[in-house]
């Protein structure tokens, strides 16, 4: 038997239940991974509240983890028992051990520990496709990043600066402003400011070619107002609630703008894309260009406290849960 955090009905953090479940056996194509660390992400909140629907209930939430392979199912050749591995995009991570489709696993290179790996897979690979594929950030560009002090935000700030871009980070407190400026942001704006006016001032009226927005409903219009003509609004999360566009004409009125709502699962659906994304992420981390900031750790059994901190904006960087 093992322990896991399961959700039997949707609701607040109190719905996260620590309970004993049978230890899984890997099916064909799967590997049994004993977790050393599990990543905390806002998508976990979405599954807990029911904003995102689980395939069945009760559900073990969590989308990323790192650990050691204990056993493999029939037909698995890419990993073997004893391998250090990490993954993202596979629901069921809030457990001491779990079976994972082997095609989702990547080997953790030397020099990267389990906490770093668990913290970087979903957030780091998200950052990779956002600035390397959704909009390929170029040297000399100025970009805007909402929630810049969060897990993805801090990685975006550092990576974009490494690519030669100027980063404008938006945060909620002066303390977070100092944090993002120490990790790649040239400018740190507070959510209480007139963000489009400040962006206009910073860019000399040019505005920005791309906005990365994980906040959602509360910042959507603000993000559009920061874009230059033909600019791209990348809405990759909805911490404040889901976004709806009642009239596509708003995109025309604001400058023939583009909007995308990407997901990591789509961008890493092909094995070669997953391997390339992870390899580039590990490379920038090992080089020191991007530092994975694991600023909070909680016991896995205390996942409810971690959720309260995340939703209360009391976290910065990444948070991991330790079995």
UniProtKB/TrEMBL annotation:
Organism for this UniProt entry: Craurococcus roseus
SUPFAM superfamilies: GroES-like (SSF50129), NAD(P)-binding Rossmann-fold domains (SSF51735)
Keywords associated with the record: NADP, Oxidoreductase
Official protein name in the record: Quinone oxidoreductase
Pfam families: ADH_N, ADH_zinc_N
Keyword set includes Oxidoreductase: yes
Ranges for domain Enoyl reductase (ER): 11-321
Superkingdom to which the source organism belongs: Bacteria
InterPro entries according to UniProt: ADH-like_C (IPR013149), ADH-like_N (IPR013154), ER (IPR020843), GroES-like_sf (IPR011032), NAD(P)-bd_dom_sf (IPR036291), QOR-like (IPR047618), Quin_OxRdtase/zeta-crystal_CS (IPR002364)
